């Protein structure tokens, strides 16, 4: 189990070297191909390269009625009062993003190469190939999945504005 300090360390030390050119699609599923470079603590002079896919589900707008029903499960009278208030709010909507990391797409290699050289080489490959779904991430080996979570949170933040603008343009918000 990951400790809070390790979690925080991974969040603070995750760096997206190359972000995907695409944002999360407003009306469909979006996939991102990642390469995550880390340094194993027990393998001096080595770097670990993990490759895989992250799939983002179509973002959804949750109306106040739906959110209030979610809140009522297992809660008491005060929660019902709050849920009633939420249902009266006409402009209160919550965006829901969902991700799945498909472990079947995951591969891992241990390489004997300086980390900065590997990052530079992969960055050059990604920029040369120009695939808008590619990403390169530098992270922490023991908490590599936290690094991917940080990456997905950044994608959500980057995508939310354009998604909301599109829904407003179409009169959905």
Would you kindly provide a brief summary of this structure?
41% of the residues lie in helices and 24% in strands. It is an alpha+beta fold and 173 residues long. It has 2 domains: 4-59 and 98-169, no CATH class; 62-96, no CATH class.
Describe this structure in words.
With 173 residues, this protein is an alpha+beta fold. The protein has two domains: 4-59 and 98-169, no CATH class; 62-96, no CATH class. It is 41% helix and 24% strand. The chain is built from five helices and eight strands. The protein has helices at 4-12, 64-72, 77-88, 115-129, 144-169, and strands at 15-18, 30-38, 47-56, 60-62, 94-96, 99-101, 107-111, 134-138. The strands form two sheets. Strands 1, 2, 3, 6, 7 and 8 form a six-stranded mixed beta sheet that branches. A two-stranded antiparallel ribbon has the order 4-5. Helix 2 runs antiparallel to helix 3 (77-88). The chain is flat. The mean pLDDT is 79.
Strand fraction band?
A: 15-25%
Class per helix and strand makeup: alpha+beta
What would the principal axes of the Cα set say about the shape? flat
- How much is the radius of gyration in Å? 20 Å
Count of β-strands: 8
* Largest sheet data: 6 strands, mixed
Mean pLDDT across every amino acid position: 79
Task: Provide the domain count.
Answer: 2
The helix content, as a percent range, equals 40-55%
What order do the SSEs take from the amino end to the carboxyl end, as H and E? HEEEEHHEEEHEH
Q: List low-pLDDT spans.
A: none
Distance between the termini: 41 Å
Number of helices: 5
């Amino acid at each position: 189990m990951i400790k809070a300090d390790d979690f925080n360390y991974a969040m603070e030390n995750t760096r997206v070297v190359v972000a995907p050119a695409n944002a999360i699609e407003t009306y469909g599923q979006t996939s991102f191909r990642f390469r995550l470079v880390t340094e194993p603590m027990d393998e001096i002079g080595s770097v670990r390269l993990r490759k895989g896919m992250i799939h983002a589900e179509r973002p959804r707008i949750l109306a106040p009625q739906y959110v209030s029903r979610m809140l009522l499960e297992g809660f008491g009278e005060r929660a019902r009062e709050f849920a009633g208030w939420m249902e009266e709010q006409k402009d209160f909507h919550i965006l829901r993003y969902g991700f799945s990391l498909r472990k079947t797409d995951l591969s891992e290699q241990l390489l004997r190469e300086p980390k900065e050289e590997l990052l530079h080489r992969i960055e050059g490959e990604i920029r040369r190939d120009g695939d808008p779904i590619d990403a390169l991430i530098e992270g922490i080996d023991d908490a590599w999945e936290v690094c991917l979570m940080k990456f997905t949170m950044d994608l959500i933040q980057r995508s939310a504005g354009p998604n909301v603008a599109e829904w407003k343009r179409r009169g959905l918000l």
